[in-house]
Amino acid sequence: MNLVRVVVRLLFVIAGAVVGLALFLFAVLAFVAFLIVSLLTGRKPDLRFRVNQNPWAPRRQQAAEDVVDIEAREVDEPSRPVQRLDGPR
Fold first, then answer.
1. Rg of the chain over all Cα atoms, to the nearest angstrom
2. Which of 11, 24, 66, 86 is the most exposed place for a label (fewest CB within 10 A)?
């Protein structure tokens, strides 16, 4: 009878370890897939954990800060020295 109890406990421990390892591997694979999809679509991965303090409050619109398109041009070096606004040093 004692042997049966030990075998059943050992089976439960092994089954729990297998389930835990499977959940851990699933979480790691989901995280890697999320990063790869974010990199391929060109979006910055948003890995912040959000907790809504009031779940009944209306949701606020988030600012669109994913992509910023600016026009840049090269500026030549100034021909005269730049005058400092805080005075000579």
1. 29
2. 86
